[in-house]
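cache lookup: miss for this entity combination. No prior model stored, computing from scratch. Input as submitted by user K.M.:
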Amino acid sequence: MADVSLRNVSKAFGDTEAIKDLTLSISDGEFVVLLGPTGAGKTTLLRLVAGLERPDSGSIVIDGRDVTKLEPAWRDVAFVFQQYSLYPHLTVAENLAFPLRSPARKLTEDEIRMRVAEVAKLVRIDHKLGNKSTRLSGGEMQRVAIGRALVRKPAIYLMDEPLSSLDAKLRGDLRLELKRIQAELGATMLYVTHDQIEAMTMADRIGILAEGRLVQMGTPREIYTEPANLHVAARLGQPAINLLPADLIADAAAPTGTKTIGARTEHLTIRRAENGHAHGTVDWVEHLGDQNHLHLTVGNRKLVTLTDPDSLFKKGDRVTIQLRAPLYFDGAGNRIAG
Amino acid sequence: MSATAHSVVEPSTASKRVAATLVVVYALISMIPLLWIFATSFKTPPDSIAYPPKVLFTPSIEGYCNLFTTRTRQTPEYISSLPPATSFCDETTRKRNMVIAGPSNFLPRFVNSLVIAFGSTFCAVFLGTLAAYGFSRFRVPLADDLLFFILSTRFMPPIAVAIPIYLMYREFGLSDTALGMILLYTAVNVSLAVWLLKGFIDEIPKEYEEAAMIDGYTRLQAFRKVVLPQATTGIAATAIFCLIFAWNEYAFASLLTSGTAQTAPPFIPTIIGEGGQDWPAVAAGTTVFLVPILVFTILLRKQLLRGITFGAVRK
């Protein structure tokens, strides 16, 4: 395990700039999640660290060693791909042993067998070691793929949306398992995803990536409560943050220069309108079971917020809305610190 | 894969029967010439040219005797002075007032065919696999133009360039050599091999090699350990196509080989018996000639089917 840093790295494919002047450092044992939509450059960034792509400019340093021009095999990284993760012509055990059988490593068959057994137990696949890798369920395949990375002790583990092709339940289970494994091994990990829940639950630090730039980097708490701008604010929160023009709902606390107010559920107090004064009406109530999604119309804007399942709002109710310390953004979309 | 590309509607028993009948009838019609050759190889020379043609006859292996031997005519007195015949072939030959003078050229010609066909198939598939991998995985400058150029070598029948090749071969001393024929068939087959194999290799996601390279393998090691095992079906199908071409090729073989490197196709029709063509021997030569390709095709028939339907069925 080791520190990894990228310094002013840029990469373009033809006319498209995938990564623009990106600087990032990951310390030993840290779990960093990069969050961004499709096309933000997440995969390209991982491929640059792995050496599958060469940067146009900038440098990549792993464990104090400049690896910018090094072949993937000599970088001491492990990679979990989003899909096509297992060699279809090999069994589970052979897949797990594959990285250890590399001519670059000189391990005896006994050592290999021991490592494979250890890792198989860690990712809970030890009961299927003899199976052909094509005869596994999606979750098992992905566990083997993760196991194939864990079988080595590289400087850093790179994970490219390893859970995205799985169904929701499995994703939840593996998310926990992955975090447990990372903590157990003290592994340095760079994990990219577009799933905010994965980012929030697993990361020591989250980096928000947009159009090839690192927009903000911080702990999940920081990113959530102090987003640098509208883009970052919109990435996190379920349901998504409501972005309202500053004059829609009067807020005396708004600092000068506020153009947009960002209001998540916890920033809104909603009451049934009394004595004829109301901000908006209830459009729709979605019952999710443990909570409700409340859809409101305020002026010409739609708002979505959470309420308790036992709240008595119903369609057509007129309501008043009060803001509680929401997020303020200026005309350029940057947050004004309150 | 559990999901198949079959039609959703199960065909009815009646339509299945009609289809099966048509296939059987077509197969029988296609097989008549082959069966006739096979039958002729077991006829005696007079039976083979009898009119009306004989469908029922007493089988004889005289054709095979004549295929593998050369014979000389002798006087009956000389023949009766010989010690008793030791084999069936000896006996039949003597009945026709001839004695076996030695082995014929069929066996060496057959061996030439084996060496040249398998040699050129190996070369074409070897070069084709490497080229296809390169085109599939690397940003080759002018890749599309190069691929088109490779394909364009198949636009004309190869025999159209027979004369330039004949002159070139005479100049380089490649005429009537096994090496010359292997080079020629490789050149013709390599375009087919590149195109077929590129399709197969394109189907193998590049993530497999990338994973292997990150795991400490060089590109060549990743190619050997990860790509080749997954491309075996494609390689086998390509090999069959190349082998069939090289094995059956007649025009170049008859033009460029006449002696030591002659292959079986131009040799077989030249088997002449006394007083005209020795049809049973020719038929016997053809039958023996069919055996290797038949065995090879049966061994690899699954891959061949996959090769033919390649691209038609989506996994």
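stored under new cache key. The first strand of chain A starts at residue 4 and ends at 13.
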